[in-house]
Amino acid sequence: MIAKRIFAALTALIALLGGGLTMAPTASAGSYGCGNTSNGQLCVRGGTLGKDGNYTFKVSYYRSPKAEITVKLGTQRKNSKITALVLWFGSKKTKNGYVELSKKHHLNANECIRGVMEYKGKTYVTKWRCP
Q1: What pTM did the predictor assign?
Q2: 18 has a pLDDT exceeding 50
Q3: Residue 118: in which H helix or E strand, if any?
């Protein structure tokens, strides 16, 4: 009950600040960039943090396979000066509760990255993976 109140307060704060991302994972991300959402787990994998280069990043989502859904997946980058707009990889329907999309793009040595998912007008994010 307290966790739901804290989550609601954080969601309202993000909306107030105009962040545009209305939902966030309810649990912390692991070293591989995964975070728990209210109905599953969202992950971002790939790349080499702290080194300039073009890397393939994979964003995946897993949920209970009781009903298949279509989600939009992508990544977002940031550094100490700016947070970039989301780079969407595309939309795909889950199969047995799992969906994954990947895309190759540049990441600078000083940038962080996180996975982003959109479903029914709500945006979910992983925690930032930083060098």
Answers
A1: 0.75
A2: no
A3: strand 112-119
